[in-house]
Design a protein that fits this description.
Blueprint: H1 2-19, H2 26-34, E1 40-42, H3 44-51, E2 58-64, H4 73-92, E3 100-106, H5 111-117, E4 124-128, E5 143-146, H6 154-164, H7 179-207, H8 210-225, H9 228-234, E6 240-241, E7 247-248, H10 259-282, H11 289-317
Parallel strand pairs: 1-3, 2-3
Antiparallel strand pairs: 2-4, 4-5, 6-7
Helix pairs in contact: 4-6, 8-10, 10-11
Length: 328
């Protein structure tokens, strides 16, 4: 009986130990913490623990300097994008199927690591691939991402990360709704609708005015027939020097022109158009015969003078142009 009791006592410790849960692996331990934060906040010790081989997981570390005294504007601009990326990954990978962790090492917490890596700039992202398991890499050296192109979005960093991770399903980035933008757009739309509902009776006659649309059409035609699009496509100069200390307003040849030349020709076309419209529509409505005759002479003189000036421009651009009218 006593021997049986002693045997029972001798078997108690193994049974007790067998009843305790087996200690979780390093990845599972940190993955549990990763689920409750945007990214693991690391220091020198945690960084060394997570990045030292062997690793059967991938870890992506952002080395940054967020305090204002360091003057890293890029670090503070990118931090919300990094938080969004790591939080989206944690929510989409609750079971840890991708075996990937995200961590942030600030300069204040990891000065030794920054010195060991000889980092002179921040932020920098290091992606450590697994060194053991089916997706391991032999050297296990981290892949580095430098922000040479300025601030990057979470989507751009996400594309870079998945290119360097093993094949398999990856969590997607989910941006939270921008409620400020939604409210702003809704307010603007409602304001515009309210304005048109109130101003409809006043705006509709203006929009239905034939003279308004005729003027808009005429100005558009004059603008484009004078060479406005040619200037934008060819990036022509406004004016150039004539080599004698003066300014040349007109380019030689019919296939070249300057910016001011376009404006001058457009103004001439405009004057010719208004003179024609006045002679065709306005002058016949003048009741007084003497005033009507005077208006005919004035607008005819304007048309004759503008056309004469236009022909002189053609002759200046090409000396072989055969037509001209006095006085130009």
């Amino acid at each position: 009986m006593r021997l049986r009791s002693l045997l029972s006592l001798a078997l108690l410790p193994p049974l007790d130990l067998a009843g305790k849960p087996v200690s979780v692996s390093k990845f599972e331990d940190y993955h549990t913490k990763f689920q409750s934060v945007t990214a693991l906040k690391l220091d020198d010790a945690a960084y060394n623990e997570l990045t030292v081989p062997p690793r059967n997981y991938s870890i992506i570390v952002l080395l940054t300097a967020l305090e204002a005294r360091f003057g890293c504007v890029l670090c503070r601009e990118f931090q919300p994008e990094w938080d969004l990326l790591s939080k989206s990954w944690a929510k989409g990978d609750k079971k840890g199927n991708s075996r990937t962790l995200y961590g942030t090492l600030d300069f204040t917490d990891g000065k030794e690591t920054f010195q060991r890596l000889m980092l002179q700039t921040a932020p920098v992202i290091l992606l450590f691939p697994p060194t053991s398991g089916p997706n391991s890499k032999l050297d296990g050296q981290p892949v580095r991402y430098d922000f040479t192109a300025g601030p990057q979005s979470a989507e751009q960093i996400y594309e870079w990360i998945i290119r360097h991770l093993p094949q398999g399903p990856k969590p997607i980035i989910r941006r939270p709704p921008n409620y400020v933008r939604i409210v702003t757009v809704t307010t603007i739309v409602l304001g515009v609708l309210s304005f048109f509902s109130v101003a409809y009776a006043y705006v509709l006659p203006i929009l239905q005015n034939r003279n308004l649309w005729a003027a808009i059409s005429l100005i558009t035609i004059l603008l484009f027939t004078s060479g406005h699009m040619f200037n934008h496509i060819r990036k022509v100069p406004y004016v150039v020097g004539d080599g004698r200390g003066g300014i040349s307003y007109f380019a030689g040849g019919f296939s070249n022109q300057y910016g001011m030349e376009t404006q001058i020709v457009g103004a001439i076309y405009g004057m010719l158009s208004f003179a024609t419209i006045a002679l065709a529509l306005k002058v016949p409505r003048v009741a007084d015969p003497r005033k009507q005759q005077m208006a005919v002479f004035i607008w005819s003189a304007v048309m004759f003078g503008m056309y004469s000036f236009l022909l002189s421009i053609f002759r200046a651009k090409n000396g072989g142009y055969p037509f001209h009218l006095p006085p130009f």
